[in-house]
Amino acid sequence: MEEQPIIENKELNIWEALIPVIVLVILLSFNVSVFGDDALSGSNQFILLLGGAVAAIVGFMNKVSYERMIEEVANNIKSTTEAILILLFVGALAGTWLISGVIPSMIFYGLKILNPTIFLPATVVICSIISIATGSSWTTSATVGIALIGIGQAIGIPLGMVAGAVLSGAYFGDKMSPLSDTTNLAPAMAGGELFTHIRYMAYTTVPTITVTLIAFIIIGLTIEPTGVADTKTLLGAMEQQFYISPILFLVPAVVIFLIVRKTKPLIALLAGTLLGGVFAVVFQPDVVAAIAETETLSFTSAYLGVMKAMTVDVAVETDNALLNDLFSSGGMAGMLGTIWLILCAMVFGGIMDAIGALARISRSLLDMAQSTFSLFASTVASCLALNVTASDQYLAIVVPGKMFAKAYEDRGLAPENLSRTLEDSGTVTSVLVPWNTCGAYQSGVLGVSVADYFIYAIFNYLSPFMTLIFAAFQIKIRQMNGKYLGEE
Q1: Fewer CB in a 10 Å sphere around the end CB: N or C, the chain?
Q2: Tens of pLDDT along 164-205?
């Protein structure tokens, strides 16, 4: 991604570059008003293709060849290969972790330990720690995030709140971890150094996560969970259906250990999926037999039950309706809608890149930067625009990073100013766009729509405002000479 060239098209004017974006926003708004929550079932995907068609028409008018557009679409889709495979493995992992008792055990002990009043801030802290350790917000949401969603649902906390807390913590840890790909990518684009970048990010990131925690503490004190009275009943029903034991936590512990040891996510998730299948056969033979629709467990029925959990919809039936909702999984098949959305978003983003629209929009924003604050504001706006139009957080870092690096240097500003702004506005806001790869992934994994968790993803939407506040008041704006603006 660092080596990907930015396609310039001097014949394209700003209004031509914006036409596909304007059309896309209008069509998506109308489509959501018609379909509501079902918009992500397929209609939004087709709207993205229509947006790509409009962008292609603009390209043809500016003598951009069909072959060039297809090539960029192919490059975009190629860049999402790992993300798509991760989604498939997350679906498989969720299935085996359900029937092995891993997720039920997490929910069981979570219900016993996490008081509803402190549940939301505790969720932020837990996800922050896991994400710092793994360097991946995606791994965090796919492991402890799923369990915390289940706990929140069991005690009657709105799932949008829980998902917002999960993502706030996960993206804080992702930003601050030296293991994170975006944390390494941002200083590479800006010409800075990794640990200087991380230390400099702390100036804006620590106040943001502090405000986020305070907000969730206040929310926790004011909400009235509806499911607390049934906790004992739920615990009893879970023990009746599953073998519940801390030994089952070995499975997620192995995955987290592998990620911390810098094992590739695909390998770690595959290991977690297979280990979950083994634990299912060993510790939950009755559950596996029920999934396989047999009375006794044999090698063939064990294979059938585990394979079904990995690949298709499965559900573990109990006497409790709430647990029936919790103990279901879509497997790999459940992730196909999200993958479909990502592919269509990459078509739109690829054509926008091919016709030079992405570079034209960023350059127009750069031209507006007449002061230090406007330079920071233009960077933020460019990152947000790329998250919406290119549908990919990496492009939201790479394109503005390449476009703005010289401008920061010309103003005598240290490269960590740019890298911090790229992270504060590019990395964390990607999850707020439903058709962005991150928004689609997190929504699919957590089972909560972007519209439902948007207002509660406090850390994510507060971060760009925090970086603008620091720029406006010239707080900790480091210059190339090592001094800060405003210092003698």
Answers
A1: C
A2: 999 999 999 989 887 687 888 888 878 888 888 988 999 999
Quote the CA–CA distance of 443 and 338 in Å, as a whole number. 8
* Whole-angstrom distance, CA of residue 376 vs CA of residue 381: 9
Could you say which DSSP state residue 296 is in?
S
Q: What's the pTM?
A: 0.75
Distance CA 133, CA 96 (A): 24
Number of C-beta neighbours around residue 264 at 10 A? 11
- What are the angstrom distances between the C-alpha of 56 and each of 28, 59, 254, 314, 401? 18, 5, 47, 42, 26
Domain ranges of the chain: 82-334
Contacts for 477-486 with beta carbons within 8 Å, 24 or more apart?
477/372, 477/413, 477/417, 478/200, 478/413, 478/414, 478/416, 478/417, 479/412, 479/413, 479/414, 480/409, 480/412, 480/413, 480/414, 481/412, 482/414, 485/372
